[in-house]
Write a structure and sequence with these properties.
Distance between the termini: 58 Å
Number of strands: 31
Largest sheet: 5 strands, mixed
Number of helices: 4
Strand content: 35-45%
């Protein structure tokens, strides 16, 4: 070997979002002038900068190279020791590669985000919000969830009460709010409450929401029933007081006329009375219809209404047709291409894609059946990014959309940012995906378990937009 190397120091520590520098010292121990190329390798290579990238040394001389480590403040920067290496390739003897190794310790940091979905719930006897807790730090998060409100007006049933969340993952906590007092009549009342994420050695993270409690019977219905009962009692009293007496005078009239009340002889028959004429005040319905039709015809015909424009087929339209055929598990999806609009929905692993890599997906419409609903969140291009990554839009998850309903992520508005990926989950079974971004080939198939687990399809890289999607929900 014609090269001697040394890392100074061999072990270093850095905070996520900060940077540190390690010096690589090397000496040409050979007998010819050589030029060396430097390339960082390992899991932290994307965050490593080498300056200079090439160095020319004469025999017996020594040079130095600076290695700058700048891990981002994201869950990808795993806390703890992270080994790294630098591949040194001589120009004169490219087969004599040297790879000095070192160790970089990334300090842990904790960042938690929580959001109520939805922030306002309504109900007469119970409200059921969900708390989405995201671990944006680089260490496992352990926390408990509790609820409180002013005046102790609500009782809380929270499941699970304790969560453990890996870095970069999220957990969904179901809460059931039950009012301690029922409103029988009257308007709805707002009851503010707070769900707190409690962590050891840290201040609680409080998320505020509102429970809108409705009355059991609305005030207008109580007023209507009271008025109706009063009118019914009034009518009954008037009927009893002014009921006309019914009395027959047939016997007296017969006696006054001197007619016997005995039954007539069987041999005699009385002629039936002649029927009285029936007077109608209006023609029959059929005639009226005929006359109306005739009148319309004589007028040259009425104006014909234009037929309604058929609604476009959405992902929910497609998934409901499949569910009606076999009642199984299905997922359907369609994409919105910038400049071209919504495409036809695809289902169960079929490809929804742009025509070329120059076209961009701006929005995705997803619907499921047999999976206990789905939730999703778009990851879009961020023109203000300083680290080359995009951003989630919106910042929190969508509400859990029930089976057979449309879920939309991203934006189909003019000038909307393109999607680089998206996160989504389902309530039961597995969710699997394969996607492709511009300039790259298809990703390998990945699968995730049901909530609170979720999957991410695509990339965080700002420069590669989403161009193709395949989703499946295996049994």
């Amino acid at each position: 070997m014609s090269l001697w190397t040394s890392l100074e120091p061999a072990s270093a520590t850095v905070d996520p979002g900060g940077s540190t520098r390690v010096r690589l010292r090397l000496r040409n121990t050979g007998d010819v002038v050589d030029e060396y190329r430097f390339e960082p390798v390992g899991s932290i290579a994307p965050w490593t900068a080498v300056e200079p990238q090439t160095l020319r040394l004469y025999p017996g001389t020594t040079g130095t190279v600076d290695l700058t480590f700048a891990p981002p403040r994201t869950p990808d920067a795993t806390a703890g020791p992270n080994p790294y290496a630098v591949r040194i390739t001589p120009t004169e003897h490219p087969e004599a590669v040297t790879v000095p190794e070192g160790n970089l310790t990334i300090t842990p940091f904790t960042e938690v985000r929580a959001e109520l979905v939805p922030p306002t719930v309504k109900g007469r006897f119970r409200g059921r919000p969900q708390l989405a807790v995201d671990n944006l730090g680089n260490t496992k998060l352990t926390a408990s969830i509790s609820g409180s409100d002013n005046g102790d007006q609500l009782a809380y049933d929270i499941h699970p009460g304790n969560v453990q969340i890996e870095p970069g993952r999220a957990a969904f906590v179901k809460a059931s709010l039950k009012p301690r007092k029922i409103i029988w009549f009257g308007p709805k009342e707002q009851r503010p409450y707070t769900l707190s994420v409690l962590r050891s050695g840290a201040n609680p993270l409080a998320v505020e929401g509102t429970y809108l409690q409705r009355g059991f019977l609305p005030r207008w219905l109580a007023t209507f029933l009271g008025a109706f009962l009063a009118l019914a009692l009034t009518f009954l009293m008037l009927w009893i007081a002014y009921k006309p007496p019914v009395k027959t005078a047939a016997t007296e009239q017969l006696k006054d006329a001197g007619v016997s009340t005995l039954a007539p002889s069987p041999t005699l028959s009385a002629a039936p009375p002649s029927p009285s004429p029936v007077v109608t005040s209006a023609p029959p319905a059929a005639e009226t219809s005929t006359a109306a039709a005739a009148g319309g015809g004589s007028g040259g015909g009425g104006d014909s209404k234009p037929s309604a424009k058929p609604k476009p087929a959405t992902a929910a339209t497609a998934v409901n047709k499949l569910a009606a055929q076999d009642s199984g598990r299905h997922v359907c999806y369609r994409i919105y291409i910038g400049g071209k609009g919504w495409q036809a929905p695809e289902c169960d692993g079929a490809t929804a894609a742009t025509s070329t890599d120059d076209e961009q997906i701006l929005s995705v419409n997803i619907a499921v059946s047999g999976t206990a609903g789905s939730a999703a969140n778009a990851f879009i291009h961020d023109p203000a990014s300083t680290n080359g990554y995009g951003k989630y839009q919106p910042s929190g998850w969508t509400a859990i959309i029930a089976d057979g309903k449309d879920n939309y992520i991203g934006s189909a508005k003019p000038g909307a940012a393109y999607m680089t990926g998206f996160a989504n989950n389902i309530g039961s079974g597995q969710l699997c995906w394969i996607v492709r971004n511009s300039g790259w080939g298809w990703s390998p198939q990945n699968c995730t378990k049901p909530r609170p687990e979720y999957g991410f399809s695509g990339t965080l890289d700002n420069a590669h937009w989403l161009v193709a999607v395949r989703l499946t929900v295996p049994n």
